[in-house]
Design goal:
The chain is mainly α. It has three domains: 9-54; 66-107; 129-178 and 185-225, no CATH class. The protein contains ten helices and no strands. The chain has helices spanning 9-20, 26-32, 37-50, 66-77, 83-89, 95-106, 129-141, 146-153, 157-170, 190-225. The longest helix is centred in the C-terminal third of the chain and has 36 residues, at 190-225. The chain starts with 8 loop residues before the first helix and ends with a helix.
Length: 226
């Protein structure tokens, strides 16, 4: 489209009100004002999230903390929430923005933070079978925050990533080192098995608490918009 006019906040709101009046389709209104249907939908979404302030041009430069980016991505990858639910909950400008974060995360790139502690080790370290189980369970409970888990347990990002995948595909036995130096699950003492089960319960409770907190936040957002 040539000579696209850059509308200000009040002009965008007037266009959205015209859309909400229902006297024309999105395609017709988009054509009338020489914008794309996608742009029109984005304006309406921003207006619903931020009000008139969301329609100002400066909204495209909004800053997001690394912690928010990471949490939004992990919530999406959990498979429990749609992109639309997440951009509403975290007040993200667009699905495109969220998708960029997802792509970055899946490429094993981190969201840098000035408050971030020591970086995760780039080289791994030797671990016991029970350590690997503990680390995998912890990471899953933390919505697969591989970087944070690697830093906390002083192992590499790749080690955590591989252990989680192995655990999900083959359970505890898949985390044995294959060299016969660790006890198999049937060889664990009663006390060791009991300790392992307690850790599983603790991590599952932690994961459920995080999920409940998110659902409360989502419910409150929907209540405010109703």
């Amino acid at each position: 489209m040539a000579n696209i006019h850059e509308y200000n906040g009040n002009e965008k709101m007037a266009i959205i009100e015209e859309l909400q009046a229902g006297e024309a389709t999105r395609k017709e209104i988009a054509h009338k004002y020489n914008i794309s249907v996608g742009t029109l939908v984005k304006w309406r979404h921003r207006y619903e999230l931020y009000g008139i302030d969301g329609l100002e041009i400066r909204v495209r430069n909004r800053k997001y903390s690394p912690e928010l980016k990471l949490q939004a991505v992990q919530d999406y990858l959990s498979g429990k929430y749609s992109q639309y639910e997440l951009i509403d909950t975290y007040k993200i400008a667009s699905r495109t923005q969220l998708q960029k974060w997802i792509n970055k995360y899946n490429s094993h790139n981190s969201f840098k933070s000035v408050n971030e502690g020591a970086r995760a080790m780039t080289k791994g370290r030797s671990t016991t079978w029970q350590e690997r189980i503990d680390i995998a369970l912890h990471c899953i409970a933390q919505e697969r925050d591989y970087g944070k888990t690697a830093t906390q347990f002083k192992v590499s990002y790749n080690q955590v990533y591989q252990w989680v995948k192995k655990y999900e595909n083959g359970g505890e036995d898949a985390l044995q080192d294959g060299r016969g130096r660790n006890k198999a699950s049937v060889e664990l003492t009663e006390a060791e098995r009991h300790k392992l089960e307690l850790k599983k319960l603790a991590y599952e409770n932690e994961r459920l608490r995080a999920e409940i907190a998110f659902l409360k936040k989502l419910k409150e957002l929907k209540r405010r918009r109703s």
